[in-house]
Amino acid sequence: MSSTIIWTIAIIALLGLVLAVVLYLVAEKFKVEEDPRIDEVEKVMPGANCGGCGFAGCRAFADAAVKAPNLDNNFCPVGGNDVMKKVAAILGYEVKEKAPMVAVVRCNGTCENRPKTNVYDGFASCKVKAALYAGDTGCSFGCLGCGDCVAACQFGAITMDPETGLPVVDEEKCTGCGACSKACPKSVIEVRAKGPRGMRMFVSCVNHDKGPAARKACAAACIGCGICAKTCTHGAITLENNVAYIDYSKCKLCRECEAMCPTGAIHGVNFPKPLDKDAIKARIAERQKKAKEAAEAAKAAEAAAAEPVKKEENNG
Fold first, then answer.
1. What is the mean pLDDT of the chain?
2. Distance CA 39, CA 75 (A)
3. Does the residue 294 lie in any domain?
């Protein structure tokens, strides 16, 4: 072996050693110390990396949880309360339990209720379809039926019903991560509380058109009549942009709104008994009758109390 080759090898080796030392010194100077608790938190996470917590993945959630002063604004919907208790134990925080959540499809636009007005022959994607035009039915707010939500769900909790053309959520598999809701360009899917024993009420419509137009587009649309809001004695229902909305945190599951809805836009699910509209309407009528009688009695009492005052004024 010639001396030239030997010197070449020696110089390259020396250069490699020098560069290694330089890289080591630079790495040490700019090294960012990482809290070891981040690894501990990540280990107890479900590892779904679904983004339902609002972060890019479980590692990002763990990093945010460790740096946060408390866990009030951090929650893993996939792991739920059990995982959050483990996270709280690692970090020495207290955690408030949250109600289990589930995805709800807020669209009544089945093939029967909302017949097609044209045929879409493009790429099978709700996002693409929504970008091109209002949809292939008379309702520009409802489900587009291409199944972007199905593709977004990592847990196999959503399927498309070929008969209705709408997505169906398997609440036993649904983790409430919200991936389907984010994937829906029409915001038809909402993540709501499962409710006690799975019972819940919701308005299955997001159509903002006025009553006649909404009803023309879909036979089961919310027409914004406000009967449900007037019927609810718990203040759980509001009417905005011609469509009703039920606040699940205030709803008492009395089903009165469902019984009074003229179009069937309000749905009650997982109730042990079928809806008895006649009995509920009779109960509402009796309550309204008593309220009217009480108001008339109060008015009469007020008038009777004012009568002596009037006599005194007349005598004076």
1. 91
2. 17
3. yes
